[in-house]
Specification:
The chain is mostly beta strands. It is 0% helix and 31% strand. A hairpin with a 2-residue loop joins strand 6 and strand 7. It starts with 29 loop residues before the first strand and ends in a 12-residue tail after the last strand.
C-alpha cells in the first residue's frame, strides 16, 4: 500500500457511507415527506375495503412534510401536502421510507397557518 502523502502513514480503512448517523439537509426546492402507512388500503364511504393494488386512475395522495430545502417558500415541516404519487422519488433512511418531491409538484397544503382556505378541512 502507498503511504498517505500528507501524513506519511499508510492509508486507513476506506470510509463507508451511512456507517454513522448523518444529518440530512434538503437542497434547493426539494421537500422530504413521509406517507402514512395506512395510505395503502382505503375504505369507501360505504365501508368497502379497497386494496392498495386496485387500479385508481390519477389519484392524488396526502403526506406529512419532514424537511424542506432552503428555496421552498410556502411549505413547512409538519404540513400535510397533496401530491401526485407518480411525480416522486423514494428513499430509505434508517429503515424508514420517505419521498422526495419538488415544491412545484405539490398541489395543496393543509396547515393551521394557511389563511386563504377553501372551507374544507382534514
Amino acid at each position: 500500500m502507498a503511504a498517505d502523502e500528507t501524513t506519511g502513514e499508510p492509508p486507513g480503512p476506506p470510509r463507508r457511507f451511512g456507517s454513522a448517523k448523518q444529518a440530512i439537509q434538503m437542497l434547493t426546492d426539494r421537500v422530504l415527506v413521509q406517507v402514512p402507512r395506512s395510505e395503502g388500503e382505503r375504505k369507501s364511504k360505504a365501508g368497502i375495503l379497497i386494496p392498495a393494488t386496485a387500479e385508481v386512475p390519477r389519484r392524488l395522495a396526502w403526506a406529512e412534510v419532514v424537511a424542506t430545502g432552503p428555496h421552498v417558500r410556502s411549505i413547512k415541516p409538519g404540513d400535510q401536502v397533496l401530491f401526485n404519487p407518480e411525480d416522486r422519488f423514494e428513499v430509505e433512511v434508517q429503515g424508514e421510507n420517505y419521498l422526495i418531491l419538488r415544491e412545484r409538484d405539490i398541489h395543496a397544503v393543509a396547515a393551521e397557518r394557511v389563511d386563504d382556505s377553501t372551507g374544507l378541512y382534514l
